[in-house]
Design goal:
mainly alpha, 11 helices
Length: 205
């Protein structure tokens, strides 16, 4: 499993990493930890440059968040509610998660875009209220890039540090990666199965 992911990333190269990280922020179930961890192993092998992986991954993260920022900027809250009601189940977006991100954004301002980059649930959600509030594009990109750069850097460093263990215990590492992927799949299925439309959250059900 580990070998397959490393081979896949190796073939996709930096462009593949960019699009995977972009997709991870558009479609939340894709785990950035696996992508960046595997890229860190390739960095340790000398097959990729740390700086290039870091920059490309951060650019992909910003691009993915810009999609949701654009959605928030183009549509108002009522339109957004209809979109979440229609597609939220498959994107695992809950209306109350959006309202939480909206309220946090209103309370703390643009800087919270940076802070929530470290939240597994709200880091994508916060892009929507930032768009709705018509936050300046350069500020949104700056805060998103800074937070993403720190998070991606930690994951790449972690993957690079674990590379010797991955090489030594490749079978065990493969099971570990497979376990992470399965956890992500199970969590996604759980979110889809337990998803509720906006009216349930508003009625307190």
């Amino acid at each position: 499993m580990t070998g397959y992911i490393l081979e896949l990333l190796g073939k996709g190269g930096y462009i593949g990493i960019f699009f995977l990280m972009m997709a991870e922020n558009v479609f939340p179930p894709i785990p950035s930890e696996v992508i960046m961890g595997a890229a860190g192993v390739l960095v340790a092998r000398g097959e990729m440059s740390f700086a290039t992986v870091w920059i490309v991954a951060t650019a992909g993260t910003v691009a993915g968040n810009l999609f949701w920022f654009w959605v928030g900027k183009v549509w108002n809250e009522d339109q957004l509610k209809r979109i979440i009601d229609r597609w939220g189940r498959w994107l695992t977006f809950e209306w109350d998660e959006f309202t939480k991100a909206r309220d946090i954004f209103r309370k703390y301002g643009g800087g919270i875009v940076f802070a929530l980059r470290f939240s597994p649930v709200l880091r994508t959600m916060v892009s929507l209220p930032a768009g709705l509030a018509h936050m300046k594009l350069w500020k949104f990109c700056l805060y998103t890039a800074l937070g993403s750069a720190i998070w991606n850097g930690i994951l790449i460093f972690g993957g690079r540090a674990m590379a010797p263990l991955v090489e030594r215990f490749e079978t065990v590492a493969g099971y570990g990666v497979l376990g992470l992927v399965l956890v992500g799949v199970v969590y996604y299925i759980y979110r889809v199965a337990t998803w509720k439309p906006a009216r349930h959250h508003e009625s307190g059900e």
